């Protein structure tokens, strides 16, 4: 491995873990619930999967998730 990459690993590993955790939880929530503030299940699946780098899941939790 390149020495420059090794220097950034302590920062990158937690970010990757948070990114995939957020993606997994948002997908779990989309499949579990049937009502959304805006849009429908298909739209939110596309938004979350296409915007996989934090943006898609965060948009879902701000604009799509309906409070229970």
Tell me the layout of helices and strands.
Elements lengths: L2 H30 L8 H10 L4 H10 L4
Helix pairs in contact: 1-2, 1-3, 2-3
Largest sheet: none
Structural class: mainly alpha
Percentage of residues in helical conformation: over 70%
Strand portion: under 5%
- Total number of domains: 1
What does this structure look like?
With 68 residues, this protein is mainly alpha-helical. It has one domain (3-64). The chain is 74% helix and 0% strand. It has helices at 3-32, 41-50, 55-64. The model has no long low-confidence stretch (mean pLDDT 83).
Task: Give a short summary of the structure.
This protein is an all-alpha fold and 68 residues long. It is built from three helices and no strands.
Features of the shown structure:
68 residues, mainly alpha, elongated
């Amino acid at each position: 491995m390149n020495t420059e990459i090794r220097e950034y690993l302590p920062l990158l590993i937690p970010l990757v873990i948070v990114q995939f955790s957020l993606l997994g939880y948002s997908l779990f929530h989309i499949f579990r619930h049937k009502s959304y503030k805006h849009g429908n299940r298909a739209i939110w699946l596309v938004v979350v999967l296409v915007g996989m780098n934090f943006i898609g899941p965060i948009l879902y939790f701000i604009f799509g998730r309906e409070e229970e």
